[in-house]
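Protocol step 4 of 6: record predicted structures for both targets in the notebook before any analysis. Target 1:
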Amino acid sequence: MAIAVALVEPQYHVNVGHVARLMKNFGLRRLYLVDPHYDEVEAVRYATHGKDVLASAKVVTLKQLRKKFDVLVGTTAIKATSRLNVLRESIDPGQMASIMHDASGKDFCIVLGRESSGLKNNELQMCDLVCIIDTKTKYRTMNIAHALALLLYEISKLKPEVAVKKSKKTMDLASQQDIDLLIQYIDRVADLGSFDSHKKPLLDAAVKKMVAKSVPTTKDIMLLVSLLRKSALAIERHRHH
């Protein structure tokens, strides 16, 4: 599986250095930084053998990450208190690792938020999945490097099974373009059905999460697109009569 890590507005050189070191521990090389504010020279001191990871880190925007990766995995310490809060509907690290294993042909990026306040709702909305580490206490906020260590450990537990030859089904996994097309037709049917416009972002977010969790093939998505396309045409014909 192809996995990268992104840090949003990292401030502390210690954390950034430790993240690079952790990535080296688990064999990850691609580190992305969104609007970084840390001391680069000091961060190198804490990266140890991960200095090359830090040196090759790229500064990007979250929108660029969205275009680059098949699946963005956001992280949060705040659980959804309402079943209607789709943006913070979360999975645990074990579930995340299983999804990555099943979709080993896809490109994943784990997105870690600000040390002080995490990811904002609009940033979580751009993610396909949201992962939370349940500490079983009232104090759920973890240091980003510590959180990443737990996530990468869960992923590494499944690595021996990933070495098997990829099946045709894995090779035919739905692409981001397929998923975008599905959402486009869902929005079209929603408009024709007078679905509340202010709920459409939540609808799109829910679809992205369901797709990411189920790991569909291109054929699965195209069947749904075909159904929605015909439904939209039927509604439009009915309106014209």
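Target 2:
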Amino acid sequence: MFSGIVAAVGQIRRVAPLAAGVRLTVDCGGLDLADVQLGDSIAVNGVCLTVIAHDGPCVEFDVSAESLACTVGLAAPGPVNLEKALRLADRLGGHLVSGHVDGVGEVMRFEALGESHELLIRAPAALARYIARKGSVAVQGVSLTVNRVSDTAAGCEFSINLIPHTVSVTTLAELAAGSKVNLEIDLIARYAERMLGGGAEGTAA
């Protein structure tokens, strides 16, 4: 589990093809790796990945073809948001994030709004019901609060206000209209729907 509070911005240095996926070499930059061991989990752009090798500031991960098909930002070199898995005694500064991406959204607008920035994202229909005003959502692994939601025929559009600190310590500053982003809905919303019998799983049951 993660909190959605990005600890460092790293760089994917190498993407090596595998029979069914890729192997990533990630320079973790300022992320403290002193306690990282083989088999540990690190969220990379919001995707929970398992450490398979560790050499100095670089860590390697295997990413399956399935993970590549339902996420963005892991198939080519570039900057990535990084967060180590939570310990039970850690502060939960954001919200509970599993690192299991639910879908890919599209940035409709990203522009300065006074000292902050407004980020407008279009979410697919399968995720729209889980996104609520003042609720939480993880975007590229960053825990954020939804300001407004507008339903559309294709899903919904939701806006987020980004304070300067969030923009400066994550990769969100590089977003622009048309950018694709990893989205993870709030775990509480997912379980609430299941318990209330909503959605495809609830109907089938």
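Step 5 preliminary note on target 2. Residues 138 and 184 are 5 Å apart (CA to CA). The first helix runs from residue 65 to 69.
Proceed to step 6 after PI sign-off.
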